[in-house]
Specification:
This protein is mostly helical and 167 residues long. It has helices spanning 13-36, 41-51, 58-89, 92-107, 117-130, 136-166. Keywords: Membrane, Transmembrane, Transmembrane helix.
Length: 167
């Protein structure tokens, strides 16, 4: 069995350059905004990547962002659970909590429209990569900065759509 993918139409060099410029300008503005607010720029890009895990309409982007944010919340809860279990079961706490969180996240694949498993895991990764104490502050800051990234990716995608229709 072979797999064939349909090649995307090749843009003209002018269109290609404008599409690239639109993404670069949007990313630069989002990164500067994130840094200016004291937010981790890498976490903004987690939201950017999260945008591309599903469709690109505003509604689909919102659901992808919601899944990413829920993933961050799961990370907060998981870290708190590991901390609570460690005194009793030691390093086994990680296995217990990862099993429980994975069970929940993977089960959510049946709950459309919030069934974006990659976005949940991006949220979990975002929380654990931030190395912050679990809590409302961590959740709100990481949700805000990843929201900026998701919005920026949507803006870049919209801008690129306009470029494609004009050139």
């Amino acid at each position: 069995m072979t797999s064939q993918t349909k090649a995307a139409p090749v843009p003209t060099s002018v269109q290609f350059n404008l599409l690239t410029l639109a993404a670069a300008v949007t990313a630069a503005v989002a990164a500067t905004t994130s840094a200016g607010l004291g937010w981790p720029v890498w976490a903004m890009f987690m939201g950017w990547v999260g945008f591309f895990t599903r469709g690109h309409s505003a509604k689909e982007a919102l659901f992808s962002y919601l899944c990413l944010t829920i993933g961050i919340a799961f990370g907060v809860g998981a870290a708190a659970c590991v901390g609570a279990l460690m005194p009793f079961v030691g390093h086994y706490a990680f296995g217990i909590v990862v099993f429980a969180v994975a069970l929940v996240v993977v089960s959510l694949r049946a709950l459309a429209p919030i069934n974006n498993i990659p976005a949940y895991f991006l949220g979990l990764i975002t929380f654990f990569a931030a190395h912050v104490e679990p809590g409302v502050l961590a959740l709100s800051e990481l949700a805000a900065v990843s929201g900026l990234g998701s919005f920026a990716a949507w803006v870049a995608h919209q801008w690129q759509g306009r470029i494609k229709s004009r050139f």
